[in-house]
Amino acid sequence: PDAEFFAGIPNICLKKDAAVDNSLVYKHYDAKKVVMGKTMEEWLRFSVCFWHTFRGTGADPFGFPTLFRPWDDGSDSMANAKRRLRAAFEFFTKLGDVAPEGATLAESNKNLDEITDLALELQKKTGVKLLWATCNLFANSRYMNGAGSNPNADILAYAAAQVKKGLEVAKKLGAENFVFWGGREGYHTILNTNVLTELTNMASFFKMAAAYKKKIGFTGPLLIEPKPKEPSKHQYDYDAMTVIGFLKHFGLENDYKLNIEPNHTTLAGHSYEHDIVMSSAFGMLGSIDSNTGSPDLGWDTDQFPMDVKNATMVMKTVLEQNGIQPGGLNFDCKVRRESTDLKDMFISHIGAMDTFARGLEIAAKILTDGVIPRQVKERYSSYDTGVGQKINKVQTSFEELEEYIMKKGEPEVASGRQEHYESMLNSYM
Amino acid sequence: PDAEFFAGIPNICLKKDAAVDNSLVYKHYDAKKVVMGKTMEEWLRFSVCFWHTFRGTGADPFGFPTLFRPWDDGSDSMANAKRRLRAAFEFFTKLGDVAPEGATLAESNKNLDEITDLALELQKKTGVKLLWATCNLFANSRYMNGAGSNPNADILAYAAAQVKKGLEVAKKLGAENFVFWGGREGYHTILNTNVLTELTNMASFFKMAAAYKKKIGFTGPLLIEPKPKEPSKHQYDYDAMTVIGFLKHFGLENDYKLNIEPNHTTLAGHSYEHDIVMSSAFGMLGSIDSNTGSPDLGWDTDQFPMDVKNATMVMKTVLEQNGIQPGGLNFDCKVRRESTDLKDMFISHIGAMDTFARGLEIAAKILTDGVIPRQVKERYSSYDTGVGQKINKVQTSFEELEEYIMKKGEPEVASGRQEHYESMLNSYM
Amino acid sequence: PDAEFFAGIPNICLKKDAAVDNSLVYKHYDAKKVVMGKTMEEWLRFSVCFWHTFRGTGADPFGFPTLFRPWDDGSDSMANAKRRLRAAFEFFTKLGDVAPEGATLAESNKNLDEITDLALELQKKTGVKLLWATCNLFANSRYMNGAGSNPNADILAYAAAQVKKGLEVAKKLGAENFVFWGGREGYHTILNTNVLTELTNMASFFKMAAAYKKKIGFTGPLLIEPKPKEPSKHQYDYDAMTVIGFLKHFGLENDYKLNIEPNHTTLAGHSYEHDIVMSSAFGMLGSIDSNTGSPDLGWDTDQFPMDVKNATMVMKTVLEQNGIQPGGLNFDCKVRRESTDLKDMFISHIGAMDTFARGLEIAAKILTDGVIPRQVKERYSSYDTGVGQKINKVQTSFEELEEYIMKKGEPEVASGRQEHYESMLNSYM
Amino acid sequence: PDAEFFAGIPNICLKKDAAVDNSLVYKHYDAKKVVMGKTMEEWLRFSVCFWHTFRGTGADPFGFPTLFRPWDDGSDSMANAKRRLRAAFEFFTKLGDVAPEGATLAESNKNLDEITDLALELQKKTGVKLLWATCNLFANSRYMNGAGSNPNADILAYAAAQVKKGLEVAKKLGAENFVFWGGREGYHTILNTNVLTELTNMASFFKMAAAYKKKIGFTGPLLIEPKPKEPSKHQYDYDAMTVIGFLKHFGLENDYKLNIEPNHTTLAGHSYEHDIVMSSAFGMLGSIDSNTGSPDLGWDTDQFPMDVKNATMVMKTVLEQNGIQPGGLNFDCKVRRESTDLKDMFISHIGAMDTFARGLEIAAKILTDGVIPRQVKERYSSYDTGVGQKINKVQTSFEELEEYIMKKGEPEVASGRQEHYESMLNSYM
After folding, report:
1. Could you tell me what percent of chain A has a pLDDT over 70?
2. pLDDT of D396-420, one tens digit each?
3. Is D33 exposed, middle or buried (0-12, 13-18, 19+ CB in 10 A)?
4. Which residue among B347, B414, B422 sits closest to C423, beta carbon to beta carbon?
5. Which end of chain A has a smaller Cβ tally under 10 Å, C or N?
């Protein structure tokens, strides 16, 4: 049970001046380094996706598995599940400060108890904590037409029983959050669908989940993760604003926050950081799945984030809202199915963690420098006093504003200076 | 002043058996024909876009004007404006039952009074009514960074004065609705933008508009028209659910409804009828701009809708919510810039009206036949009684549902039968 | 061995006036009906995709199988493979005039011989012919980085051996074509890729295939099927013109034609019929995979084609090039994973066949009527004589044209009349 | 005539340690600095787009002009044209080493002679050279249905006369290249289009252009610039491979090369650097328009390139093919219409030049370091000897390869190591 699964790979350490082709060290991520009053690990709160990293096989719609792990015999046995879990904890420990994100690991309640007992034991032994728990309400064929929005009430009831157990497990393992992803909550054709009925039932489902969470004393936030499409043609949690509209319509906005994955944001037609910014502006940003996609592809590639500029924009928002705890930065990523070496598992996480460490440092520099924030603040300064302040506080009227502008005349127009801002950002990179 | 602008073109009439290349008659639209208890014109409430049809020049970002109209000398003179208006009313009259949609036609208040006097006179004379009025808060350079969301309070004040006048004109002309389209309400780069400030100010702007509307006794609905992008990189009114979320967040949901343009819906990544269906489900569908785009292009082509299947899906929703009055079906369309003949203006509207007339008849057949609706109803029947009904009415809990499903066991899974529904729809076409 | 696998389902027959919800009869497809001098079955040459229809499980990247077929025990045994084949031939026979498209059914040569013996026997017994054969050079993990373009020469050699056998099987079974689909021929990141080396090797691969085909006397055309992306980020056979450019660069244009799937065409950013039209214009259209996608989704949904207008545009091109034999119309489609009933397999094919039968009849009406073709011909008539004819035949020069236009003056500009053409098309629908 | 148009702005100089908000100095671009044996200016060969930068008004399809330049009175007078030209040369001189790209500046031949006389004089005086000339064959209404592919032979003749003059001007001004962009060469609807006729005529047009170029002794390359769509729905020069296929089909491949704009490449569904890499691999890369777009938008935003990683990928290809001369890096970019300050014109070009200077230095580091190139070379090493070499040189057969692989057995599969390559690239950034 204490065998080493990643034999040739040491604990990953910081080595700033490592050679270019040494991709098995951190060149930027320094867990204990203090940035704007907190350590890197406090700001970044990295988490590894158990599902993708330890259950991913490399299969895709056109291809068979390519990833064969020495500890995994491909079976559904408890022994295999436990071996996989031990490998995972070795992986977490070697990477350093990462918390797993955990899909519940088995389907039957009995097995679930046994495997979560082991998880709990490993957590205690290693000090690794669970960022969030979730339930898989999309893979089983019974959910092919949705869980909370299923046309069949029995299937919704089944999902309810499953989430009930999931919340209990979350409490048992001390999960800091509980996430819902509704990949099958949506429709394939409007022809066979009653949208209002489906949304109403799904809202009931969420209300019952919030009630049960309170009942058992699970204190972590409940999070909904938007995604526009895939696997469904249209998903009810299309993007941040769609979820916010849904929550507010059904009176759920105090019980739920959002888990934003920028890879889903770009699939919804927005720029990488858009839903991070929007949900933060509405006070609804709870946690982040930090994977990326290819902007020229129309599906979820779940790649490791390697773009420092994107990471900077995300971390700038996180810094501005003073952190994301109890949420975190989960790598809901998959190694490419062509990245078949065991060490690719490490290289990919290290590369992404370094990317976000650089993003954090650059964002902190931007904010402490204050040049960009000051120029933005100045841009809106007309709303700080006078008529602008009245507008902002809804203390004026069309009549008063007409009178004001009649006197004032044609307003001055100011350059938006986009290229100047882009150049300033580049100066920090 | 009574000269005929469209000399060779007679009043358009119904001729079901006209030759294929006779595109100057209605082959389907029969204004007075009764369908499901109302006439076609009552269901369809067609409207012509004054702006595109009478001010469009065919210019595009890469090309100069191609459309030269005999009544338009290209000047900004009042005489030209009036001639244009008379041409428009001849056009409305020859087409038959269409109401114009009107952007306010001039910028200075003085000219606006004079031109709306003429419009009023022509309306009375012809019996043509105004479907909706709007203000252009995007073309002038002062609005390049938004109107209600502008970083400069003076520009918001200017827009307020303009909408104030616009609402007065709407009342004067008996407009049945007032529409806001926020093409510049959004951002180009998040780097220079404070999203929350902009949204808060824009909400104030909408609150003041609603207050002024009530004050002057304008009774038509206020409508917001979603569009995801273009001209801005990101627009705050991305799609139906985004607008609904915004309205509910700022407490505006009782004062505003939505004007849906499926061409914008497809740009937001949804299928043609999606936002029609969504806004109707949320009780927020106020009116429709029925133009279409090319799904392989990423900008707003504003083509005339010529797809009968799309029209059927839209009209099915309109029938299901028992009509869209006081809203209507506005053709916010442009003839292609290569469609340079005067008669192309008629051909395009006639083709689109026939398309929607066919859509209406097919949708009515689907609903009166009842086969598809019954099969959909049956699909959700488990929510009509027992545990399903309790879920739908939020009268149960996770504990009760767990107990229920433990007894019941694995739920039965039913085929979604998408291809069967698609075949049935084809049977009606 | 002669058991009935589709017990409740009779041979599908024509019943024009069947009820709307009877989706198990042809309402339009009438195999022996003569249209423009050939029977429907001669024009349409329908084919069923063995792979999708008899091996599809409904699994997707987010979900487990949903389609459980009574004849399939999920094993890899020969008995199971044979039962599946018998079920398939019952399906082909009940549908009527369809030819299977066959991926080679097993991997080891021994099994392949045995299973193709059975296939041959069933073909003879039922009269069913094989439209085309292919090799699966993408599913096995060895092909994860390509087959003909693999960085490892041994893998290319392996693929060569596999195609060699595939061509032999094609000859044995009397396949009318042999198709290459290069889902892994492409790249995921340019960083690790030498494009020129990969293309050069892939061209060698195709040259050797053409040589071996001639050697063994297989006479069917070799076809390449373009697809822009998925599973690879970028595929070398992006679209029709990309393949044509590749073939011409490497001198392969006389040995290969194209198998066009409009679902791939739309993924490449073109309209549904575009690559059909382009490859036909270049004399390279060999066969058609007639499935469709959802224009708002960015991956290959392989839906059954149910849009009569799209089918009309495709069949118009097929009629104009006087048929597609020895190619055909293959339904490379999957029932939705939610379409779990056995009869959904029939309903989907019937619906698609009726759609193309309608498309054929409408296209034939358009061509025999001659209104649209005449108007198009007239549009280009200036190239039939005089200076236009000289241009078309490259018998003039810039100097001569300058002189001509100096005399002639500003050319007349004619309306493109897009809406008129769209209306005419609607008149035929 | 010698007045200073950009009064407050000095010649732009290098200042590596300038403050973040000083966006009016080069922080990276150092014209005379030697990189891999050539100076930065020799590698980069920057060029400014005269059309966008000196004729752009900020108008867009939804908005009026926003950019008002002090030297431009908006008229079509020669005096205005000359003032604009003088302002441009002041701009070129202040930026430093940039060559203009010039659309021919007027329509009538007489004016063209006069304005090109002045251009020639200013070129001599300042030492500024012309990177390329072109003709505008898309803006005038006569070209609304194409120039070389127009259905009307007279319009093709008109375009021929215009290009004839354009080539003469190119020779007169010593342009180093001549570029064709076919924005209207394509179709809006296939219904009114004969694709083969249009392509055949367009090929004739290009043949005549090549002939006339030789006749007058203009020695610069003729270049075609691919773009997939916009303004047309579909353009015949969709992307690099489409153009290459067209050129090879009509025997034009020796007379034309490609001018690649990555903004168009991304609109065609490829990654930023894709068409640069492809056209270079085929020996057809002639010049580069280096602007960028927003991946979440579906039209050509012509933004200034500010992404160092993209610039690195482009410059790596340029270095690998040992430069792009006589081509160059043209900024075919527009300041945002909200960037209304005169100095935004400078800031945008400076920011983009610095971006490419950084890209050049990083690419040079990657190549001289040799780590990445060596690892890629190693990846393909099996084609350097033995059976791989035979494949690469087309000296083997399917029979030989089958025999080889039978002996060898299942090939070894190697990790593609995408994340490792991405991490290495990040190490260089």
Report:
1. 97
2. 999 999 999 999 999 999 999 999 9
3. middle
4. B347
5. N
Query: CB–CB of C388/C382 below 8 Å?
Result: yes
Of residues C245, B32, C345, the one with CA closest to residue D275: C245
Q: In degrees, to the nearest 5, what angle opens at C-alpha D405 toward C-alphas D402 and D411?
A: 140
Q: Do D23 and A423 touch (CB under 8 A)?
A: yes
**CB-CB neighbors (< 8 A) of A9 in chain D:** none
D339 φ/ψ angles, rounded to the nearest 5 degrees: -90, 80
Q: Which of A62, A183, A299 sits opposite C138 (nearest CB)?
A: A62
The predicted-structure confidence for D19-53, as pLDDT tens digits, reads as follows 999 999 999 999 999 999 999 999 999 999 888 88
Supply the pLDDT for residue B50: 85
Mean pLDDT on C333-345? 96
Distance from CA of C158 to the nearest CA of A (A): 17
Residue D402's contacts (CB-CB under 8 Å, 6 or more residues apart) are C157, C160, C161, C164
D289 SS3 class: strand
Mean pLDDT of B165-186: 95
DSSP state of A188: S
**Tens-digit pLDDT profile for residues B53-76:** 888 899 999 999 999 999 999 888
Residue A107 is predicted with a pLDDT of 53
- Picking from A308, A355, A427, the nearest residue to D20 by CB comes out as A427
Whole-angstrom distance, CA of residue C275 vs CA of residue D190: 11
Instruction: Give the model confidence (pLDDT) of C179-205 as tens digits.
Output: 999 999 999 999 999 999 999 999 999
Checking if the pLDDT of A105 tops 50, the result is no
Spell out which residues of chain C touch residue D387, defining contact as CB-CB under 8 Å: 153-154, 157
Q: Give B282's contacts in chain A (Cβ within 8 Å).
A: 249
Contact flag C308-B426 (C-beta cutoff 8 Å): yes
Which helix (H) or strand (E) covers residue B316, if one does? helix B308-320
Q: Please judge whether A299 and C294 are an interchain contact, meaning their C-beta atoms are less than 8 angstroms apart.
A: no
Long-range own/partner contacts, residues D209-217 (CB < 8 A, 24 or more apart)? D209/C398, D209/D163, D209/D167, D209/D180, D210/D252, D210/D255, D210/D256, D211/C397, D211/C398, D212/C397, D212/C398, D212/C399, D212/D163, D212/D164, D212/D167, D213/D167, D213/D178, D216/D167, D216/D168, D216/D171, D217/D171
Mean pLDDT value across residues A62-74: 92
Q: Is residue C96 left, alpha or beta, with left meaning phi > 0 and alpha meaning psi from -120 to 50?
A: left
Pick from C130, C213, C202: which is nearest to C165 by CA? C213
Chain length of chain B: 429
Q: CA dist A87 to A1, A39, A126, A361, B343, Å? A: 10, 28, 13, 32, 74
Bridge-partner residues for A225, per DSSP?
Answer: A181
Closest CA to C6 of C303, C344, C330: C344
Q: Is B15 helix (H, G, I), strand (E, B) or coil?
A: coil
Tell me if B161 and A418 make a contact (CB, 8 A cut-off). Answer: no
Q: Confidence band (pLDDT; 50, 70, 90) for D1?
A: very low
Q: Does C131 have pLDDT greater than 80? A: yes
Which residues of A106-239 form beta strands (DSSP E)? 132-134, 177-181, 186-187, 222-225, 234-235
Contact C316, C367 (CB under 8 A): yes
In sequence order, what are the beta bridge partners of C258?
Answer: C224, C285
The domains found in chain A, sorted by start residue, are 34-372 (3.20.20.150), 384-428 (no CATH)
pLDDT above 50 for A251:
yes
Answer whether A92's CB lies under 8 Å from A50's CB. no
Instruction: Give strand ranges (E) for C175-301.
Output: 177-181, 186-187, 222-225, 234-235, 256-260, 285-289
> What is the model's pLDDT at position D102?
66
